[in-house]
Every structure is written in structure tokens, then in C-alpha cells.
């Protein structure tokens, strides 16, 4: 069970083990879904319509984009920015799951509400994600810059990127897109945790025998469902965040088509709606939903698997 469960007092794992489980779940998942993440970011940053009918559009479909990136940049392009992405996943997973466990336990100890309530999981999930985001946002900006650049590369190494960005754009560059990130991540993560728990309870109610036997499959399936629903509900804010994060990086985007400059979240949203229409707010939704299903399902799958492993190891030692 993700989050504090007063009915599972025998599941005794330390905060360190919770953080390790969160880190490892993020690390393994990131390796597997990185290609989809690169395609999603390319779609989000493209001004032109994602359609064959637009002759200026560089990308217009998942398979076409995958083939073109492979032909032009080679297979390693699908793991561009992988080192900062892994640092992001490891740090984010540890802070988020640890914060969530601590917050849900605090709610239970304070006797405010049942720690397993939908609203408690939504609030604690959102807050834990905000804490994790504040911790690792500079790495997220680096990851986005690496994934967004074409050939020739502007940044050769992680150190080169940090030094160049700091010198040319100042220290605040590492927090570009923070406002829409926090605005988007709170409901996104809140829905992830609350919908995941709700889907698990629904699964166990509908299939009581299967729910007890196939725990790993249940976690994977419910995590995937939670990822799809939460991503769809909050997707436009994720797109605005990506557009803002590559501000000041226009020279490396020239080979991909048109570029735009934005003064802030509201300006970004306004320009996208005026120039690209409402559908522009959902560019890259298809690979993003595929990525959300896989990543959220795998993160919860691996997290619960490692938590249970730590729990059984403690029982074996006692």
C-alpha cells in the first residue's frame, strides 16, 4: 500500500527504505520510458501543427518522429539528457514517496481524517510532489534543454550546460518554468496517488480473489490507469512548462521550425491559444499518455515491490 495505512501496522519499513524504494523505482522506469519522453518534448516544443497537412511541420506522428530522430541523430538521441533525467528521477522519487508517507502518517496521527481517503491522498500527493519539484527542478531544466537541442549540440556535457547556462542567463535560469510546474504538478500528482488508491480498491472489490493473488499485476494496471487519467486532466500546464523552460534557447531550436519567446505563464498560454488553437495545448498528448501509462504504472509497481521486499527482509531477520 502506498501511503500510511493504519490497518497495516505490521508493514514496518524505515524512512530510508521508503526513500530507496522511491529512488530505484524512478531509476528503472526512467531507463525504459526515455525514448517516449524525448518524442513528447519534441512535440510539445513544435509550433507547427502535428499534421501531415502542414508542410513546415518536422514531426507529425509518434512512429514518424521516432524514425526521423533515429535517422538524423542516431539511437543515442532517445536518451539525450539521460544523466540529468536519471538524477531527476532518483531524487524526485526519493523525496516524493518519503514526503507522501510522512504526510499521510501525520494526518492519521492528528486524527483529522482517515489517511486512506481520496482527498487525503490527493492533498498529500500534491504537496509531496511540490516538495520534490522544488528539490530537483534545476535538473529538470537541464534535462529539457538536453532533450530539446538538435545537431550540432549547444551543450556537450552536463558540466558545460551548467556553466554556459549560468554565465549566459544567470542563476534563475535553473528555475525557469517553476510556476507552471508547481501549478501543474500539484493536481497531477494528487490525482496520481488518489486515483491509484481508488482504482486498487475498485479492483479488489470487483475481483476479490484476483486482487489478493496478483498484487504486482494489480499495481501495474492501476498505476497505468491513474497515470492516463491524471495526465489528461493536467496536460496543458505541462506543455506551457516545457515552452517556458527552453526560453533563451532559441538558437538550438532553429532546425526544428518556428520558435517563440514568452514573458510568463499567462503570455505563453495566450500565444499558444491564439496561434495554435485549443488543440495546441494538447500537442504531444499521445506519446505523453503512453509515457504516463508506462511510467506511472512502473513507478508504483517497482515502489510497492521494493517496499514489500524490505518488509519481508525485516520479518526474516526478526
Write the layout of secondary structure elements.
Elements (H helix, E strand, L loop, with lengths): L14 H31 L16 H12 L8 H28 L8 H31 L9 H12 L8 H29 L1 H6 L1 H31 L19 H12 L8 H33 L1
Helix pairs in contact: 1-3, 1-10, 3-4, 4-6, 6-8, 8-10
Please tag this protein with its features.
318 residues; mainly alpha; 10 helices; 71% helix
Question: Can you put this structure into words, describing what you see?
Answer:
By secondary structure, this protein is an all-alpha fold. The protein contains ten helices and no strands. Helix 1 (15-45) crosses helix 3, helix 4 (118-148) crosses helix 6 (178-206) and helix 8 (215-245) packs across helix 10 (285-317). It has helices spanning 15-45, 62-73, 82-109, 118-148, 158-169, 178-206, 208-213, 215-245, 265-276, 285-317.
Concise description?
It is a multi-pass membrane protein. This protein has 318 residues and is an all-alpha fold.
Distance between the termini: 22 Å
Give the beta-strand count. Answer: 0
Mean pLDDT: 84
Low-confidence stretches: none
Amino acid at each position: 500500500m502506498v501511503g500510511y495505512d493504519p490497518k497495516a501496522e505490521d508493514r514496518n519499513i524505515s524512512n530510508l527504505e521508503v526513500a530507496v524504494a522511491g529512488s530505484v523505482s524512478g531509476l528503472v522506469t526512467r531507463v525504459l520510458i526515455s525514448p517516449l519522453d524525448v518524442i513528447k518534448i519534441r512535440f510539445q516544443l513544435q509550433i507547427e501543427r502535428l499534421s501531415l497537412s502542414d508542410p513546415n511541420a518536422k514531426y507529425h506522428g509518434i512512429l514518424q518522429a521516432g524514425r526521423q530522430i533515429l535517422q538524423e541523430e542516431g539511437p543515442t538521441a532517445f536518451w539525450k539528457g539521460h544523466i540529468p533525467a536519471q538524477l531527476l528521477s532518483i531524487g524526485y522519487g526519493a523525496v516524493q514517496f518519503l514526503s507522501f508517507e510522512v504526510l499521510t502518517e501525520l494526518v492519521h496521527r492528528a486524527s483529522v481524517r482517515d489517511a486512506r481517503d481520496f482527498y487525503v491522498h490527493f492533498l498529500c500527493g500534491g504537496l509531496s510532489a511540490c516538495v520534490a519539484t522544488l528539490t530537483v527542478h534545476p535538473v529538470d531544466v537541464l534535462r529539457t534543454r538536453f532533450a530539446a537541442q538538435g545537431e550540432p549540440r549547444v551543450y556537450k556535457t552536463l558540466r558545460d550546460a551548467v556553466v554556459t547556462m549560468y554565465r549566459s542567463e544567470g542563476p534563475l535560469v535553473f528555475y525557469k518554468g517553476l510556476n507552471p510546474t508547481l501549478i501543474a504538478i500539484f493536481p497531477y500528482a494528487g490525482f496520481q496517488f488518489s486515483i491509484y488508491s481508488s482504482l486498487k480498491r475498485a479492483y479488489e472489490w470487483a475481483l476479490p480473489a484476483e486482487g489478493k493473488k496478483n498484487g504486482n499485476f494489480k499495481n501495474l494496471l492501476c498505476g497505468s490507469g491513474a497515470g492516463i487519467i491524471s495526465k489528461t486532466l493536467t496536460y496543458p500546464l505541462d506543455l506551457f512548462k516545457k515552452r517556458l523552460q527552453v526560453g533563451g534557447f532559441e538558437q538550438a531550436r532553429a532546425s526544428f521550425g518556428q520558435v517563440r519567446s514568452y514573458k510568463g505563464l499567462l503570455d505563453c498560454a495566450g500565444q499558444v491559444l491564439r496561434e495554435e488553437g485549443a488543440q495546441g495545448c494538447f500537442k504531444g498528448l499521445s506519446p505523453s499518455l503512453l509515457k504516463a501509462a508506462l511510467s506511472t504504472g512502473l513507478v508504483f509497481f517497482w515502489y510497492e515491490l521494493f517496499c514489500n521486499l524490505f518488509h519481508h527482509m525485516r520479518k526474516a531477520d526478526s
